[in-house]
Amino acid sequence: MDATPSGVTGHVRSVEFRHLEYLLAIYEGKNFRKAAERVYRSQLAVSQQVRALEDDIEFPIFVRAGGRNGVSPTAPGQLILNRAGKIMKERHEVFAMALPLKSFPLLRHPSIQCKSSAYAATTQPRRAGLCHPPTAT
Q1: How confident is the model over 27-48, as pLDDT tens digits?
Q2: How far apart are CA 120 and CA 66, in angstroms?
Q3: Which DSSP string do the residues of 30-44 spell out, in sequence order?
Q4: Would you give the distance in Å from CA 112 to the centre of its chain?
Q5: How far apart are the first and last CA of the chain?
Q6: 3 state DSSP class of 94
Q7: For 81, how many CA atoms within 13 A lie in the half-sphere containing its CB?
Q8: Which pairs count as long-range contacts for 42-49, CB under 8 Å and 24+ apart, including other chains?
Q9: Which of 35, 64, 80, 125 could be disulfide-bonded to 25 (CB atoms 3.0-4.6 Å)?
Q10: Is the pLDDT of residue 80 over 50?
Q11: What number is the average pLDDT over the span 57-76?
């Protein structure tokens, strides 16, 4: 068994952003078919990915009611969906934050290294001494 930093043991496959996107699309669309259309995948592929995640964590994320009733999250599934939503929002914010960096051509140069956060680098990076060219060794 693998141990996570929180001390929880178990093995969960590498979860990618696309997996979280699938889960959120299923939750929002209330069924796998709509979710598959939304993420441009086949229903079978989305269903298999979710089933594999559920097998890894050893509990269902969704209750599959079948027919027109669609799917709904289980209680632990709702916790996963809440966190997945936050993660996807943060992912979007990271890349949205990067857009203003285009106005600092010096920061885009591959030989420039920043000592601090990208956010701090957007506010007068030279004056703050945050960015510098690499030193020769």
Answers
A1: 999 999 999 999 999 999 999 9
A2: 50
A3: SSHHHHHHHTTS-HH
A4: 28
A5: 43
A6: helix
A7: 19
A8: 46/22, 49/18, 49/19, 49/22
A9: 35
A10: yes
A11: 89
